[in-house]
Structure formats: C-alpha cells, structure tokens
Amino acid sequence: MSAKLTAGPVLIIGTGLLGASLGLALRPEVEVYLRDSSPAGAALARDVGAGRTDWAGRPEPSLVVVATPPDVVAEVVAGALAEFPRAVVTDVASIKADVETDVLLLAGPEAARRYVGSHPMAGRERTGALAADGSLFLGRPWVVVPHAGSSDEAINAVRSLAVDAGGVLHQLSAREHDAAVALVSHVPQVVSSLLAGRLVEAPAGALDLAGQGLRDVTRIAASSERMWTAILTQNSAPVRAVLAQLQVELSGVIEALAAAEQAGPEAPGVHGTLGALLRGGNEGVARIPGKHGGAGTRFGRLTVLISDEPGQLGQLFTDAGEAGISIEDVTIEHARGKKMGMVELSVLPAHLSDLAAELTRRGWRIVETEV
Q1: With CB atoms 3.0 to 4.6 Å apart as the test, which of 31, 169, 180, 267 could cross-link to 263 if both were Cys?
Q2: Strands across the sheet with 340-347, in order?
Q3: Residue 7 near residue 62 (C-beta atoms within 8 A)
Q4: How far apart are the C-alpha atoms of 32 and 28, rounded to whole Å?
Q5: Maximum CA pair distance of the chain?
Q6: Exposure of 274 by Cβ count < 10 A (0-12 exposed, 13-18 middle, 19+ buried)?
Q7: For 304-346, what is each residue's pLDDT tens digit?
C-alpha cells in the first residue's frame, strides 16, 4: 500500500470492468462508493471489494468517475455535475470529442469547469465486475483530456486519479485523442473482427492448421459487441478515415495478386507492391514503443520444445535466469492433440547464442533461433 494523491470520497458510477477495477485500485486508502443503474451490478462490485453501496447521506464526493457505456456518458456526467456542485467529474469513455461537446451543451460552461475527460487505455476481453482487477491500469497509458474551460483544480484531480491507479500520464485534446485511438485501438478491433468473421464458415480442416499468428490477430475479436458498436459509431469520422486509407492500400494489394494470378508471379509491379506492403509493416512495428515505453528494440528469438507438465515452464525460466540472461518477452504455442508446445523466448541478440548453448547443456531441445 502507498499513500494516494486522490482525496476521497470518490463515487464511481458504473460498476463494470473499468469501474470495479478502479475501485479496487483505490481502496482501501481512498473511500469509494458505487452506483449503478443495476442494483445487482453495484452489489456484485461491492462484493468483490470495489467499494460501498451505502453512500446515500454520506458527505458529497470530491471526485465522481463515470464508467458507464459510452453512449450515455455525457448525460450521466452532466447529471453528476448538477447533483454534486462541488465535485470534480471525469469519465473513462474511449471516445472524447462527442462526449465533451455534449457535456458542455448539457451542463453549461460554468459547471463544466469541474469536468475533465479521461481514458485509461486498459481492458480485457472479459467484462463485468467479476473480471475486475485492481492492477488493470498498472503501467498502462491514461490519457487526461481537459477542455478549454477545465479548471486547474479539476485537471490536477484527474491526473492524481490516473497516478493513483498506476497509469502512465498523457494529456491530449479531445480530437487528438479520438484520432489517436482510432488508429491504435478502434481500427485494429475492426480488422481483427473482419478476419475472425472469415472463420465462421471455414472448413474444420483449415482451422486445424491454425497457429499462434491467427490467434494473435484475432484475440481482440472476442470483445463485447454492444460496447464496440457504441465506440465505433461515436468515433465514426476518425475510424472511417483510417479504414479508407486501408481500403486504398488493400485494393492495390488485390490488384497485384490478380496480376500474379493472371500473368504469373513475375508480372510487372507485383513484387514492388507486395514488398512495399511488408516493408511498411516492418517500419510501423519498429515504431511501436518497446520495453518500459522506450524505443522499440529488436530481439533475438529462441524457440524451445516443452512438455505440457507441471513445473516445466518454471524450470525453463529458472534455467535461463541461472544462466544470467534476462527474458524480455515470451509467447507459447500449444501443439494440437499433443501434450507439448513451443515456447518462444525473446532476448537481446548478443545473448542469444549463450542462452541456446546453456539451455541445450541443461537438456532442453532448441527448435529454432532467429536474430
């Protein structure tokens, strides 16, 4: 436990995954009360330890956090500003420009001085209070989105909330935020869902060949239909703009593949188009922030065959640690129908050969190494 900057009491309106997780992150150092349109939902969040529901008659909250579905956020924020005339109010919706516009219209500029939007870039495929986790926000970006009339006091209160939850602070305008999340969050959801949708009628034999690559790019397709419909429609303009760019580039790829199909693999322009596609992908991946948010680092990869038995994965990490080599990342691919799998360890390239030699000496079977 550590001292919190947030002065309670805090009222969280909406007790799904984000609301309940935030309550868990703040308690017990901060007094947290819960409200939900569903009494059963609030009771469930209370029972997992996210806060108390007996807030009626208590002192007015100093901070109200609105964690409702995005299509009703603005109305709930405006209602909270009116109900608690001294409280700072924020929301955690993943779209900001429309919410900000509506709050200013519904609440008026004076009350809206106490409003600052925010967005923790955290979540998981599972939803609801039962999936809540007090560590959900640790190390994740938390965007603070003040409007032109937000007071310094309100901005500082929301920044303190983000820090107390373990988030990494960023500050953007509403439109900057919406354009950014369209690119790094909302369009990936659309692309993942489109690809996963192609699997609905796929032959069983094809799905038997699925590997980790397919799982990686379709993982987020399991997300909530209701939530993402609201997000995509409310951030429609930035999302549409990115998808339109993808459509142009995809059309070029389709044309190149058609040329290869009709005139052969060496048809003019085919290799150039496909090479540019893959080169652009490599360059884009290289720009994604790496470990601890620094510049992306190129790692060497070592793949180890491992049996699906208790203690095997722990032993592999122990052996790597005793070799004095830090594992930077790890992925696991399970073999279909067999009690074994392959563990891909990412290490600094300079340590790759030493790790391979040491693990081989200790009896591990190295399947592949790649610098």
Answers
A1: 267
A2: 329-334, 340-347, 300-307, 365-370
A3: yes
A4: 8
A5: 78
A6: middle
A7: 888 888 888 889 889 888 888 888 888 888 766 677 888 888 8
